[in-house]
Amino acid sequence: MLSYARPWILQTRSLWPGLALPLLIMLGASFISEHYGGPQLLYALLFGLAFHFLHQDARCRPGIEFCARTLLRIGVALLGARITLAQIGQLGIGPLATAALGIVSTIALGAWLARRFGLKTDFGLLCGAAVSICGASAALAVAAVMPKTAENERHTLLTVVGVTGLSTLAMIAYPLLAKALQWSDTGAGIFLGGTIHDVAQVIGAGLMISHEAGDVAVIVKLFRVTLLVPVVAVLAWYWRQRSSAPSSGGRQAPLLPFFLIGFMALVLVNSLGGLTPRFTEALSQISRICLVIAISALGIKTSFEELLKLGWRPMALMLVETLWLAAVFVIYLCVFTR
Questions:
Q1: Cα 161 to Cα 143: distance, rounded to the nearest angstrom
Q2: What is the DSSP letter of 310?
Q3: Is the CB of residue 299 less than 8 Å from the CB of residue 49?
Q4: First to last CA, the chain
Q5: Which stretches within 196-257 are classed as H helix?
Q6: What is residue 35's three-state secondary structure?
Q7: Closest-CA residue to 222 (of 39, 84, 329, 73)
Q8: What is the pLDDT, as a whole number, of residue 110?
Q9: Residue 331: in which H helix or E strand, if any?
């Protein structure tokens, strides 16, 4: 029995030095976020950047890579436990179609503008998905199927920083805009849930208006999260096709990554009543922990100096995408719900 367990024990020992650091960063980021406010993921990212020098240590590198890849996939898969098909069906076709249009058009705009700004198309696709779906979580999910290069890792970190900052600003500004335009609680919830990047900030913005607006905002937001599956599947297919040229070697990535299959399975199980509220909450917490540890590890892997070299263009691109997504929902609410 011990002989079978020995390889697993040895592997765990090799991962532990690099796994312990992102875990400690996660605990520190959680403590500061809970006691002093602010975005937990952004704290974890910035703390991770400060420990970049440890990525060069051969003892730490395997555990850091495990957190940045395996725990990332687990965290994204467990997001499905928060969603049911019944919640989505309550919205009606209008908000759902607008959310889908906003996602597709924002990603297309990102790819097009990236080339105009002198950036890579891959970066436009990455930040377009992050802005239009669910912020940092979407950025990490897309990064999991992107070609693995040092440049793409820097782009992922920059996207997380950008969408987290923009989402924080939107959480403050968008409720004021909804009140200025005199939308109903339902209309305000549709706008907030369709435009703000992070789930927690959607809830915060909705509750600034009313509980009804908060409930509607969460449902719209969860529908956007559900669309993460087809978006990541299409992007995985795109990068898979591009890497299948005769000059490329190695094993191809699966067309539908396993973590997306796990995501869809949890949505179906939760829709059928197979998950109790307490178990759903536990899976949501585990998902959050995995994602915070993963972003800590990505921060450790990234040089802050190299991040600064990317310049102002990526942030300008994300700002334009954010404003575009907001414009899509403003037009819908002003034209079709009057």
A1: 14
A2: T
A3: yes
A4: 70
A5: 199-209, 211-226, 228-242
A6: helix
A7: 84
A8: 93
A9: helix 313-336
Per-residue tokens: 276: 């109790």
Q: Residues 201-224: what's their mean pLDDT?
A: 80
What is the reported pLDDT for 325? 95
Q: Please tell me what DSSP assigns to residue 60.
A: T
Residue 92, helix vs strand vs coil: coil
Nearest to 136 by CA among 44, 52, 265: 44
In the DSSP assignment, the letter for residue 333 is H
pLDDT digits (tens, 9 = 90+) for 117-129: 888 899 999 999 9
Nearest 5°: the CA angle 236, 240, 246 is 175
The DSSP-derived string for 243-310 is TTSTT--SPPPPSS-HHHHHHHHHHHHHHTT-S-HHHHHHHHHHHHHHHHHHHHHHHHHS-HHHHHTT
Q: Which of 28-32, 62-66, 240-244 has the highest mean pLDDT?
A: 28-32
pLDDT at 7: 53
From residue 238, give the alpha-carbon distance in Å to each of 81, 233, 311, 317.
27, 9, 27, 22
Task: Give the pLDDT band (50/70/90) at residue 308.
Answer: low
- Token digits for 266? 């949890």
- Altogether, the residues listed in the chain come to a count of 338
Residue 250 has pLDDT above 60, yes or no: no
**C-alpha–C-alpha distance, residues 117 and 185, integer Å:** 38
* Radius of gyration of the chain from its Cα atoms, rounded to whole angstroms: 20
What is the pLDDT averaged over residues 310-333?
90
For residue 227, CA distances in Å to 62, 207, 276, 316 come to: 32, 24, 24, 25
- Among the listed residues 128, 197, 131, 120, the one whose alpha carbon sits nearest the alpha carbon of residue 154: 120
Q: Which amino acid is at 271?
A: S
For residue 68, the 8-state DSSP code is: I
Query: What whole-number distance in Å separates Cα of residue 313 and Cα of residue 118?
Result: 8
pLDDT digits (tens, 9 = 90+) for 129-178: 999 988 878 888 888 888 888 788 888 888 887 887 787 788 778 988 99
